[in-house]
Amino acid sequence: MLYDQVDKDDQRPVVPLSLGDPSAFSCFRTSPEAEDAIVRAVQSAEFNSYAPINGILPARRAVAEYISADLPYNLSADDVYLTAGCTQSIEVVLSVLARPGANILLPKPGYPLYESRAGYSKLEVRHFDLIPEKGWEVDLESVEALADENTAAIVIISPGNPCGNVFSYHHLNKVAETARKLGIFVIADEVYAHLAFGNNPYKYGIVDSIKSYFNISTNPATFVQAAIPQIFEKTKDDFFSKTINIMREAADVFHEKTKEIPCVTCPHKPDGSMFAMVKLNLSLLEDISDDTDFCLKLAREESVTVLPGVAVGLKNWLRITFSIEPESLEQGLDRMKAFCQRHSRK
């Protein structure tokens, strides 16, 4: 809907602030070590066959060793189950948890794939709130009010999509204590874990960035799995620090420039991930009915796409991604500012 609204006669490039896909931009290109590892695995002709359902042993062993470096205990290859990106991992987890009458607790706002997959698995969905004024922390009182004897799990996403928050250790511990008291599983989703701006970069998130786009089954392509050990061994630390620094600077630009747009408010500067939520103040605008109307008209008039908050569970908010070229980010936010000024209530 958004891209259909873009004026084809507008000579300005479209600024995509709606889709979090940094791979489309040269500043976020993956490491040459990852590219070389994939090429070598393909050229070896040793990994053209089916893989075990949980992944090939060398890849699982490499993942276990890599993650264990940041843990107080060691994982084994048997603790690792490789999937084709987060989509398949959500599919596997929710399929295991599904049972007649069961429900699952999802954050609002949140990643919509959980809802669609839960519906497919006939899991009832119950939404708990994230509190914007507290850095999008989990409203634990709402969790306790929603949970019952049929609650299978609670989903925790950190770094957050769509909010850009990173939960503190203290808050995660409180979430774990609450889940333990309620007797439910915690699904800890770190889809964008390699994009946290704090002291812990969660560097093992690189696995998600090399998922196969040539896969026609539900499992990761065997040659991609075969490349993982070399990627972990050869990729230099400055690849991760460079990416995180670019994202941190983009988050700073985003946060400062949104302050210049009177009709939007960012309650919490992004701590990680690629996204942020901003609240839309419709009382300051004329001829704009809601967040969807705002986004459609913005796309038509300024060739800037932003996701309406209703798509992630918060009506009259906007989800904006800042994982694009810095120059394009500034252009997109400047166009949004001009749009808001043009539609401001007189």
UniProtKB/TrEMBL annotation:
CDD domains: AAT_like
InterPro entries linked to this entry: Aminotransferase_I/II_large, PyrdxlP-dep_Trfase, PyrdxlP-dep_Trfase_major, PyrdxlP-dep_Trfase_small
Top-level division of the source organism's lineage: Eukaryota
Residue ranges of every copy of the Aminotransferase class I/classII large domain listed in the record: 13-200, 213-335
Signal peptide: none
Name by which UniProt lists this protein: Aminotransferase class I/classII large domain-containing protein
Organism, as annotated: Salix suchowensis
